[in-house]
Structure formats: C-alpha cells, structure tokens
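Notes from hallway chat w/ T.B., transcribed later so I don't forget. T.B. wanted the structure written out for a chain they're using in a teaching module, and asked if we could keep both sequence and structure tokens in one place. Agreed to drop them here.
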Amino acid sequence: MNITAGKKISAMNAGTVKLGAFRINRLGLGAMRITGRGIWGAPNDAASAKKLLKRAIESDVNFVDTADAYGPEVSERLIHDALHPYDGVVIATKGGMLRGGPNDWQVNASPEHLRAACEASLKRLGLEQITLYQLHRPDPSVDFKSSMQALIDLQREGKIRYIGLSNVSLKQLRQALEMTTIVSVQNHYNFEHRRASEDILRLCEQQGLVFIPYFPIGGGNTDYNQQLIRRIADKHNASAHQIALAWLLAHSPALLPIPGTSSIKHLEENIAAANITLDGEDMAALDKLAN
C-alpha cells in the first residue's frame, strides 16, 4: 500500500485526545502481541520487540497500553527495558487477570490481588506512580464496588494517577462514575463489533472520557465483507486493516485505537492509517457491517 507517499508516518496525524492532564496522539500501541505465542512467555526475538517499541515512539506514538497478564509480566518488562524513563509517553497498564497458560485467562479482581498486582507493575515498569491503571475485567465473584474501592485507595496513596476500566458494562461504568473520577474505558470495539458498547461510547463522549477500543482491527480474526472492504481499500490505496482504523478515527473523537502487532512493517501500516480520510459514502457502508 502506498498511502504514505509524500507524507510523514506519524501518530500525530490522527489528532489528539485529552486523558486527564495529558494530550495523547490518537493512535496508540497495544503491547499484548510483543510477547510469546498465546500471549504467553517471552517473544522469540526480544531485541526485535524492543526495536518495535522504540519505532512506535519515533513515529509519535505517546500512549502504550499493556497489562501484567501479558506474558505474564513479559510485556511490562520489555516496555521498561526499551522505553524507560518514558519521556513524554504515557504507559497504561491493567490488573485483575491471572494466567494459566497460553490463551488461558482467569479473572481475579479482589482488592488484595489488585493491590499486589499494582505494586508489582510499579516495580517492573520502574515507576513511582502509574499514569493510567485499569481494572482489566470485573470479577463476577467480587463485588464491583470493592474492586473499585481498591483502585481508589491506591490512587489516594499516590500509586496510580488516573483510574480506567476495561470490559465493563454501561451499568458498571455508571457505578464507577458515582464513586470516583474515571478517565478511560477499554472495551472490545471495531466497525463490525460495536453495538454492545455504543451506549458506553456515547457516555464517554458526554463525560469527556477516552474510549480505548481493543481489537480495533478485529484481533486478527475478522473475516471482513471482502467485496465491500476491498472496494473501499482500493479507493484509498490502503489495506482492510487501515480502513478499519480510519473508520474508528472518523467515528468518534473520543476513540483512541491501540492496534497491536509484533511487526514493524505492520506498525507503520497501522500508523499510516491516520492519513486516510473516509468520505460519507465510505462511513455509511462500513456502519452497516456493525453487529
């Protein structure tokens, strides 16, 4: 694809969103896929993973999203080794999940676990305060307000600056907002999978929250409506994944896509999506794919 011809590959081209006191360029990096297969263990080439992280920052990405469960611990350690002391870059991490093996995810959002997880992330990342700490997933076996209170306590102690939520319902978001200030929500969201969180996005817009869509290009498993996507992609001399990111950037100014990859080539293609301007016909066609 040649959409970058004559243009700088920069996350700044997507505009910015305000997260607390920070201005974030609207194409971030999801750091889940820099780990091993199944998001388990170390990558085959740690040096390449660190190179990718540095290339993202060189391309004006100033928001990197991770979690203690990615690896587990591997993603945070690689981020520390490649980017510390994070000059001008917001590192967001999450707690509340445990791992049993490759692709095996188990939720634990007890107050005790969240405290231990946050303190461990602080050490791995080499920070005294985590800028954005997110509840990875509400725990059905733990009262949601108890999980929230644990994050509020950590914030009062100065260990986290801002609180974010992930994988929450509209009801849970409203409950959290009644308890404290929330700056972000991270839910599964892309142009095909969005109806479940559309009301949450609207509330984020109203409240000035950032909505961070994970799997913004379908998590690598999306079977796009090939004829439609090919037509729009060919029109813009782009790939289907780039069109998916361009749709997010155009759909709402509250959206902060965080496409993840282990490939510098794909990283640059993702960032180049900021140069695509979809017209009304493109947007209407893509909107029809939602479920």
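Follow-up for T.B.: The chain has a mean pLDDT of 94. Might be a good example for the class.
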